[in-house]
Amino acid sequence: MAKKELKVDSVAEAYLALLAERGIEYLFANAGTDFAPIVEAYAKAAHSGLPAPKPLIATHENLAISMAHGYAAASGRVPAVMVHVSVGTANALCGLFNAARANVPILFTAGRSPLTEEGLPGARDTYIHWAQEMFDQAGMVREIVKWDYELRNGVQLETVIDRALTIAQSPPEGPVYLSLPREVLAEGLPGFAYEQPSRHAAASPPAPDQVAIVAAAELLAAAKNPLIITADAGRERVAVAALAAFAERFAIPVVEHRQRHLNLPADHPCHLGYSPTPLIDGADLVLVIDCDVPWIPGRRPPAPDAKIIHIGVDPLFSRYPIRGFTCDVAITGAARLVLPALGQALLPFAEMMPIEARRKALAERRETMRAGWRKLRDEARTMRPISPVWVSTCLAEARDPASAIVNEYTLLPEHCPSTRQGSFFGSSPAAGLGWGAGAALGVKLAQPDRQVIAVLGDGSYLFSNPVAVHHAAHLHRLPVLFVVVNNAMWGAVRRATLGMYPQGEAARSNRPPFIDLDELPAFEQVCAAAGGYGERVENPAELPAAIERALHAVTIEKRQALLNVICQGGGGG
Ligand SMILES: Cc1ncc(C[n+]2csc(CCOP(=O)(O)OP(=O)(O)O)c2C)c(N)n1
Questions:
Q1: What ligand 1 atom has the least distance to the C-alpha of 487?
Q2: How far is the C-alpha of 221 from the C-alpha of 114, rounded, in Å?
């Protein structure tokens, strides 16, 4: 097939055109002097008609990468991000680590300080070009990304971009890093010829080995009380239906633990909540599906003789230095492929399995669990300061069932259940704070017609660079509702301290350091300063109406909104 040819003047123009041709819709960027050829190429593309991803400014790198993360998770497409050389890369590291641990494919790029001191177009022309250079700029990210490379010239452009994109999208997916020296971007190109569509494909997910499937099926057939624990089975949306069918057929309870996606609709009869603790003692087999930490070994592990099966594209989480969960069988494979295969292998044993007794016990457990939650909700209704339980309850009432919730810690899913695919996005297991607000903007960008609600702690919100977040929401017309569950503290630090030293000095002290966040600014005014709707809520009775007002601003007035909900200490997550 003949190659497609474009008339370009520089590598930068060819680069942008190729990204667009490969389906990259957005370039999330935070620029510097390294961007000069990119800025010039965009300006030319505006009248030459050359394709290019839409440029999207984010005024902090962690925001750029968090937006890209949310966009990728909601759209299933690969975004590109570009930051300024070494320093921009450093600022993006936390978000990049979040994306890597959450298996989100992103083409993460950075300029390089010009390599030459004079002579070539793009050579050094300002004082920062010396100090910002590093011996190994990619060294900062090499432990985090799947692949890194530096573009050496225009001739290799197509190979490099296709390799970057296919590696990012091959399971287990994740970000890749490409550095772009200014001289290379500025290089002249006498036209650009490339394959369109690409002749490079991402690798297929691993399909399960039949020997491992049979071994797992035999263990499952012999188990009386199996339990499924998952964090991320629903990352591939088709796996949600596969999990629902498998759990239903064999009457196996499913716990979503620290879930990152909707894995099983909360109204599914096998959904047994969000904590493995109440069920793990009684389980004689645990099926761990895409879950890095199914339980805390030092607290409540399964019984020593319980059989343990792990399923995942990388079921041993080989990029984690230490992870010692017992494992009788590990099945390498995508959940959407493994679960139907396991179901098939289990069918011949169905007659001898106590499926109906299990189904009955499961229904009873589920009812008891839900009654307990209802009681908590009733108690929370009038609590002042407001309980995080009440915040989640009110959001459950007010949200459009098709809305997407982005949860950075403080939503309690048992009180605000999600039932539709793609309606829940939780923090990366790396838990680098400051992700949720930007990720919510990315989800909104991917799905403009969807109601998007970010639920954040006051700590998480502050980590997100709020002024940059609200600026981006306004600038890019992304009307998201931010709900800050404001307990004026880093509750997680408090819980960790009391957990380690229950009788310690800090437990007796009124105000141990590094926990309370005193004199917090009026967050609602920060949002209002960027043209959004802002409201502070202290009275639990007023919360439902405040949420309605905020949702009106978001859905009807099409502007962002923030509710600063003054809550009890201790946090919710
Ligand atoms: C980048 C980063 N810095 C620090 C932490 C440690 N950390 C985990 S939770 C937390 C407090 C979060 O506060 P908030 O969002 O208000 O929720 P709360 O713990 O009060 O429920 C901190 C500081 C982290 N996870 N990520």
A1: 20
A2: 63
Please tell me the pTM assigned to this model.
0.97
Q: What does the alpha-carbon distance between residue 383 and residue 378 come to, in Å, rounded to a whole number?
A: 10
Q: Is 132 helix (H, G, I), strand (E, B) or coil?
A: coil
Q: Which atom of ligand 1 approaches the CA of 408 most closely?
A: 15
Residues with CB under 6 A from ligand 1: 94, 409-410, 431-433, 457-460, 463, 487, 489-493, 571-573
Residues 6+ apart with CB under 8 A from 507: 497, 498, 501
Q: Phi and psi for 296 in degrees, rounded to 5?
A: -100, 115
Of residues 87, 77, 92, 94, the one with CA closest to residue 112: 87
Is the CB of residue 340 less than 8 Å from the CB of residue 244? no
Ligand 1 atom 17 nearest Cα: 457
Backbone angles phi, psi at 496, to 5 degrees: -65, -40
- The 3-state DSSP class for residue 248 equals helix
DSSP class per residue in 459-512: HHHHHT-HHHHHHHHHHTT---EEEEEE-SB-HHHHHHHHHH-TTSHHHHSSS-
Quick one: pLDDT band at residue 328, thresholds 50, 70, 90?
very high
Peptide bond into 206 cis (omega under 30): no
How far is Cα 124 from Cα 191, in angstroms, rounded to an integer?
Answer: 26
Among the listed residues 572, 383, 379, the one whose alpha carbon sits nearest the alpha carbon of residue 485: 572
Strand duo 107-112 + 80-83: pairing: parallel
C-alpha to C-alpha distance for 349 and 407, rounded to whole angstroms: 40
Element (DSSP H or E) covering residue 217: helix 210-222
Residue whose CB lies within 8 A of the most ligand 1 atoms, among 66, 428, 433, 484, for a mutation test: 433
**Confidence class of residue 555 from pLDDT cuts 50, 70 and 90?**
very high
78-92, 151-165, 329-343, 495-509: least confident range: 495-509
Nearest residue to 60 (alpha-carbon basis) of 466, 530, 433, 481:
466
CA distance 67 to 53: 15
> Closest ligand 1 atom to the C-alpha of 489?
20
Alpha helices in 276-407 (DSSP H): 277-280, 335-346, 355-380, 388-398
Convert 88-117 to b/e letters by CB count within 10 Å (16 or more is b).
Answer: bbbbbbbbbbbbbbbbbbbbbbbbbbbbee
pLDDT at 572: 36
> Which residue's alpha carbon is nearest to atom 21 within ligand 1?
571
- B/e letters for 463-476, b = 16+ CB within 10 Å, e = fewer, are bbbbebbbbbbbeb
